[in-house]
Amino acid sequence: MSSKTPKLKKDDKFLHTEQEVIPELFKNNPTPVELTSAEEINEILKDIRGKGSAGIDQFTNKVLKQLPTCYHTFIANLINASISQSYIPESWKLAVVTMIPKSMKDHTDVQNYRPVSLLNTLSKVMERVIQKRLYNWLCQAKILSEYQSGFRRFRQTRGQILRLLQE
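User: That's the sequence. What structure does it adopt?
Assistant: Structure tokens below.
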């Protein structure tokens, strides 16, 4: 049995190149990502979990949460520069991978550990900014199926179960 991935041909049914798809997605919105503000950074920092280990930047979420609000403008400017220039700092792309033991397992067996990536704290804030923009755009463009409930606000598994029972 071959472990090679089959090569896609240009005429394959579901193959689309980014040159075909991306311009079509953004034709009505030439600037797909709006910039952030100190107020939005403040809201994101309120929502972000306060505990956790530091990533490669050696900052924890707790440190960012405790910054005076005057620093939120600086963070917003930094993220806006990254968005405007379509550039992500190299250090934001790095992670510290640590192994966490699975609960109630034999810790002498390597199979009973799972890897966890500790990310740069500012990159997590930027991810939240981008995630909010992307989610709103997907909803407005009606790209998400009405049946998609995972990772959507105000949607529950209960609704999907009821839908399945009614069919």
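The chain has six helices and two strands.
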